[in-house]
Write a structure and sequence with these properties.
about 300 residues; alpha/beta; Alpha-Beta Plaits; 2 domains; 10 helices
Amino acid sequence: MTDNAIEITNLSKTYADGKTALNSVDLAIPAGSIFGLLGPNGAGKSTMINILAGLVNKTSGQVRIWGFDQDVNPRQSRAAIGVMPQELNIDPFFTPRAALDVQAGLYGVPKSARRTDEILELIGLSDKAEAYARTLSGGMRRRLLLGKALVHHPQVLVLDEPTAGVDIELRQMLWTNVRKLNEQGMTIILTTHYLEEAEAMCDEIAIINHGEVVVRDRTSALLGRLDAKTLVLRLENPVPALVLPGNVTQEQRRDGQIALTYRRSQVSAGQLLAAVAQSGGVVTDVTSEEPDLEDVFLSLTSGKAA
């Protein structure tokens, strides 16, 4: 086992209709991390996940999961990964307990090594263990999908849009469980359209667009890529004309505050405040607004989605 849970080298996938979903992708995901895989619809995220899960055959390239090459050791590589899919693909006539036991059997987990009760408790379905899946709410079914992904003790867990369409309570429960699993050493790969979740949860993020990785970096470093910052000022009295350094944009907001957007590489907050004072402005309150992950995402993918 290396330092990486996943190693993808020169991975490509072209479908029979000629569409290229992935184009020579190289990506390494560190073991023990929570890793975000983001991109617009049609960017190639689902194809990559399905290749990792062994559900789609790649056209070319190499995939190693927990040190096992998919082509050389397909059984071991598949056993090292669990996937919580977007779709609610659950047999309606199985109880949660039966669904977990069947899934464990499919992975060859002996009865003595199964953790059905432990998983039911983790996903909050102990009291529904014997209820038919068709009677479960949508949120409970999504919890059951997480349980099914965990039955074979995977080292890597993929969460494909896990909180799409769920309520706040379920979302919080899911992230609590994900953090707990990660603290126990499990590597988590997350795809999501909720960028604030990726920003809060992920150690590192890769953004895929048009079948290629356009950027991969630590979350904090990605946010630092945007040079723009905004100071929001409340002045004691209106100032007819602020004399500001070049390349600073000024916006008068409806609440009476003034927003000054500038580039940190060109001017400092101190210089801005000094310029306001020299223009006769008396600042009574000041706040700053930093760029968020959505700004980074849009700046990298705007106009390029497949």
